[in-house]
Amino acid sequence: MADIVAITLLRHGLTVANERKAYLGWTDSPLSTEGEKEIMDLRGSYPQYEKIYSSDLPRCVETARLLFPNAIPIKNPLFREMNFGSWEGRTYHELKTDGDYLNWLERPMEALVPGVKVIRHFPNV
Prior knowledge:
- 29% of the residues lie in helices and 3% in strands.
- It is mainly α.
């Protein structure tokens, strides 16, 4: 058994929604042509990991498949990005007059995002 465990965190490739500069957390958007190209340019630059864990969203699974074609990613919804609730798919320009959004920009760790159900779960506490 190894004495060291290395964890590498990788973000999915550029998506169509990213190119629009839209907030995207739990809504899926496919990798854009540029995103696929960027990921393919990175192929082979990482070691072959024993296990690949991924969000269950297709953009993340596809990124893992492109980077590590011989691995089968272990999908887990707990690796999803932040849920942007009613802001999913919308851009700053669409939200810049929304009071809740402006409050969130000022206090992102305290303000709530509309349309997201808050679940507090602390196992083994």
